[in-house]
Amino acid sequence: MRDQETATTPERQEPRPTWIKVVAGGLGALLCAHLFATAVFVGPANAAKESLGTTLTSYMQPYFQQEWSLFAPTPISVEYSMLVRGWYDADSSTEWVDVTQLEVDGNILHSLAPSRAGIITRRLAGNMRKQYRLISREEQAVLAGNYHENAWARMEEAMLATPDPSSDARISYVLRLDRAMAAYATQFAWAWWGRDSGIEYVEVQIQETRAPRFDDRGDDPSVTTREFGRRPLYLYDDQDSAAFAEAIGRFR
Questions:
Q1: In which element (H, E) is residue 178 found?
Q2: With 59 labelled, which of 75, 80, 100, 123 sits at a CA distance of 20 to 30 A?
Q3: 78-87 and 222-232: which strand pairing?
Q4: What pTM was estimated for this model as a whole?
Q5: Which among 80, 75, 173 is positioned nearest to 124, based on CA atoms?
C-alpha cells in the first residue's frame, strides 16, 4: 500500500498591530537622533556643534557625557606645530606661516568627517621633536645651522664630528626627517608665494605648546620653539606639485 503525501497549508500569520510598528519606528528614530547627538558632541569643532550650542550640551550632560579618561589615563598634553618661511637670499625673507594651523582650518575645522591630511605636519613635527630630544646639544646646534648647498651630507659630517655622536641610524633618521621638512617647505613656498617669486631657501620652525598641569589650569600654555636653519629647495622624485598647490589653494 502506497503512502499518500498530504499537503498541509501553513497557518496564516497575523499582521502585527499598527501601534507596535509606530512604537518601533519612534524608538528607532530616537535612537538615531541620540547617536547623531553623541557623535556631534564628542567630535571635533564643527558647524553642527556650534549651531546646537547649549541645547546639545544640556542634553548630553551629565548622563550621556563620555568619560575619555577611561581610555586615556594620560591624555595628550603637548601640541606640535610647524612653521615655514622662505628666503630670497641670505638677508631677506618672507613672514612665518603656521602651516599646521592652515591644515587644521582647511581639513578639520567645521568638518564632521575630518581628513587625515590635517595631521601631516603635526605628525612630522612630533616625530622630529621626539628625535630632537635624543640627540646632543652639539647635534641640535648643527640642525639650527644654515646650509645652502650639499646640505644633508655636510650636516651628517658635522654631526658625526661632535663629541660622543649619536648612532649612525639615529643621525640618518634625523636627517631624513629634516629633508622631509625641507621638501614640504619647498612645496609650500611654491604654492603660497609662487614658484617664480625668487625664493632660494626655506626654513622650518617647530613649536610645541604644552598645556598647564591640572593644578595650574588657570595658567596660559607654555610655548617652546625649536629652530632649524635655512635649507636649499628640495624636491622628492614623483612629488605632485600641482596637487600640493591645489590643496594649499583650498586652505586659503
A1: helix 168-193
A2: 75
A3: unpaired
A4: 0.68
A5: 80
